[in-house]
Amino acid sequence: MPLLLSSKDRVVAVVAHPDDAELLFFGTLRRWRDAGATVTVLLVTDGTNGVSLADQAVGTTLDSTTRPAESVASYDGTGIGVECLNLADGALHLDRQLISRIEAALVRLECTVLLTHPVHDGRDHQDHHAVSRAALNAVVRVPTCTTILCGQPFGPHQKVTPTVLVDITDHLDAKVKALQAHKTQSGRYYLTDAFTRHRAAEAGWSLLPQQTADGRSYEALVPALLLLDGPPEHS
Fold first, then answer.
1. 99 CA to centre of own chain
2. Cβ proximity of 115 and 151 under 8 Å
3. Which of 57, 126, 164, 174 lies at a 20 to 30 A Cα distance from 120?
4. Which residues, 6+ apart, have CB-to-CB distance to 164 below 8 Å?
5. Average pLDDT score over residue span 164-170
6. Neighbours of 182 (CB within 10 A)
């Protein structure tokens, strides 16, 4: 399924943690921005608790500005904005507070395209599960939004079936560099150059094998809602 990119779109990627949008959507967001769309990454948490057990053992801590600043740095020069709701990571719940905070941001940003984590029953970070369900709950009350897309999870045992591929070949090197901006998370396998390139090729093998064999790279998405005629007119 081809993805229609419009300069009129106001794209919002709602993700749980700093680095999630870059992992799931970096090339897709760049493609939309190249088309002239307004693009915003909305971080639900500030990622303060994103410290490995090994780092905790030697006294490493993070403040509320460090990881969001890494996300800002990863989009430096792209024209993509980054906002943070500054909720605590690790213990998000699908509740009224979370849904309302996301809904308010989507309305304020006049979101026409929502990107978020996939909804699935497999193993995943608890914050990812909460944010995806909260975003899909909230967006039904955002009248401007006509397109909802979920990313492909990046951990093991997290199966979804993508039907949309976005060609990110021209942005793959930039995606690798963007992930390297998350210095507090260095050493995690899913931020490495090798994993990023493998994943960008793996996304295409089942749907576009010839193009993938020719060296094209992709991000895979699952459409939750796609209304090609646009939002209804209001008198």
1. 17
2. yes
3. 174
4. 1, 3, 149, 220, 221, 222, 223
5. 96
6. 22
